[in-house]
Design brief:
transmembrane; 6 helices; mainly alpha; 189 residues; flat; transport
Length: 189
Amino acid sequence: MVHDEDAAIAEAELIAEMDEDHEDLSDVRSSDGLVLVVFWVLAFVVFLQFFTRYVLNDSLGWTEEIARFLLIGVTFLGSIMAVRKESHIAVEFVYRYLPRRARLWLQLVVDAIAVVFYATTGWLCTEMAQKTRQMMVSVDVPKSVVYWIVAACFLGMTVYGVLVFLRHLRTGTSRLVDPDRFTAVDRNI
């Protein structure tokens, strides 16, 4: 009977340890899966390029161009996630020396500027996409597809930027305004 109790205690301690090591994935959304898929397609294409170039000594011509455009896709799709999570870099130095009310106003001004930047850049990408008639070099796909994808990503950043701005306005706080009160779980939209 004592052996069973010891085994049960050991098992409970192991389960408690496993729970402590568990990663918090509460800020991951289903839309983040697209970034993961594009990333792994990029990894496969780069591996294929390496394998055909250095192992087979006969490189596939399309892999370099497609890898470049997939990297652009990963970057801008990841930027949507970064805006949603408010994980873009920020200069915190100025915020430390301002009173709380000034920090809040500065946060709202920065949020508004970011939203205007995302919307303007998205609009410029649509203009570029409409004017681009050139085809990709190695595959028969218009280059404008890349610009349309980037424009769609800027639209996503604009939408999440507006939601972040409204949340900061409604709650009166953010990671930069009240760094002591802010937690990673509270950032989710």
